[in-house]
Amino acid sequence: MRASRIVPLVVATALFMENTDSTVIATALPTIAESLGEDPIALKLALTSYLVSLAIFIPISGWMADRYGARTVFRAALAVFMAGSLACAASNGLGWFVAARFLQGIGGAMMVPVGRLVILRSVPKAELVTALAYLTIPALIGPIMGPPLGGLITTWLDWRWIFLINIPIGLIGIGLATAFFEDIREPERPPLDVSGFLMLALGLATLMLGLASTGRHLLPDWLSWSCLGVGAALLVLYLRHSRAVAHPVLRLDLFRHPTFRASVVGGSLFRIGTGAIPFLLPLMLQIGFGLDPLQSGLITFAAAAGAMFVKTVGPRILRTFGFRRVMVTNAVLAACFLAVNGLFTAQTPHWLIIALLFVGGCLRSVQFTCVNAIAYADLESRDMSAGTSLASVAQQISLSLGVTIGALALEAAAGWHGRTAIRAEDFAPAFLAVALISGASVLAFRRLAPDAGAEVSGQRLAAKVSVPAR
Question: Quick check: 131 and 56 in contact, CB under 8 A?
């Protein structure tokens, strides 16, 4: 098989494990909260701790791959992720569970970005969209299997078993990487920006801890606000630091490329909205509508099925219409279908919910294909590692913000009615809030040139072929 096919399929093993894990947890969240004696909203810390861990350690993933070799780091990351999964299965309290998820995030921070870096350095730009499609198609099987599998295990077995399914998948990934990966590394690499890494890591961790702990008094109010202030101050210090050093841990100068800037800024806004779905939707179906985890999982998998269904036609859509037109139009449509989730009631037919979730999944899948591909359209090979780190950090922060903002909107809706308990009617304003943020991504995508990323989309090549010879 060609490198544009076999390498993405190997990396997809890691994505499959990570995506299965996240969707299984989302389905089982209310049951896990009950078992640990916690409010379901409090378990947003378990979701955000994983995402924050990704954001903290992703910036050094490229340097680690260049220093120790991509294959070595990829296999070690899979092992760490499996260790975190075992710790999750053994947890008996919220603190332990959150710490175990953080450990999982360390593994996830290395395995997926490093695997994507292998793809970027192994596949020609003209085949990049196809390679990314091969990467995401197998990985999308995880979200399809995750909700029903999580619901089945949670309903009929103990929820701790949901983390043990990662072990055989991880072992398969280690074996495939050993057989098919080259140990790619850069012969010349800059020194690690240790002080910048510490500023960024502590800044992101404290800022997101402050955001995630607000609302339900998971921490004293003064401590939550202190975390917000300290985190923001450290991130401002990092901005100044990154301009003063030759090799910052995150190269913010990459924003000078319009395609990269639109991908990161617009993609982050879009993901804030969609990142709230795995948190809000299972809670609405189980707490709001009274469904059990299995029934919930058999409904929510439809979005992932839609994403997988449309993935194969993504490159064809891009070749026909180009990045700018697709991203602007699709962002509006996807935001509308996100807001529609808030209109569901306990009396809404399940077939209609499944159909609308399926279409929404199709739209989001097209958008993610565009955002992921155009980010690297104008980057040179030497900038791929830095670009991968920065784009991945922005992705995880936006997903974490999606969970946090969705939870805050849910709590605000309940508080508006003078309640602390969440009811079905509180989900409509929460979905509307995150949909508006997702739709705001249009402002970034509209600034792209009409032919932006034409080499990656294949539109330029198609135009040349269509011109008759003279």
Answer: no
Helices (H), 245-349: 258-275, 277-283, 293-311, 314-321, 323-340
Mean pLDDT score, 185-198: 77
Contact 377, 322 (CB under 8 A): no
Q: For residue 449, give the H/E element and its range.
A: none
**Residue among 459, 422, 189 nearest 290 (CA):** 422
**Which pairs count as long-range contacts for 351-356, CB under 8 Å and 24+ apart, including other chains?**
353/299, 353/302, 354/299, 354/302, 355/302
Question: What is the spatial distance between Cα 298 and Cα 303, in angstroms, rounded to a whole number?
Answer: 11
Sign of CA dihedral 304, 309, 315, 319: negative
- DSSP assigned state of 285: I
Element (H, E) at 197: helix 194-212
Report the amino acid identity of residue 294.
L
**464-468: long-range contacts, CB 8 A cutoff, minimum separation 24:** none
Angle between helix 44-57 and helix 384-416 axes, rounded to 10 deg: 160
Cβ atoms of 33 and 97 within 8 Å: the answer is no
Residue 278 CA to residue 226 CA, distance in Å, equals: 29
For residues 282 and 367, give the distance between their C-alpha atoms in angstroms, rounded to a whole number: 23
pLDDT category at 86 given cuts 50, 70, 90 is: very high
CA-closest candidate to residue 148, choices 167, 171, 165:
165
Amino acid at the residue 289: F
pTM: 0.78
Mean pLDDT of 203-211: 82
**Tokens 């590394």, located at residue:** 185
The rounded distance, in Å, linking the Cα atoms of 71 and 192 is 20
Mean per-residue pLDDT over the chain, rounded: 79
- Residue 257 near residue 378 (C-beta atoms within 8 A): yes
Q: Shortest CA distance to 52 belongs to which of 387, 373, 436, 402? A: 402
Residue 42 in this model has a pLDDT that exceeds 90: no
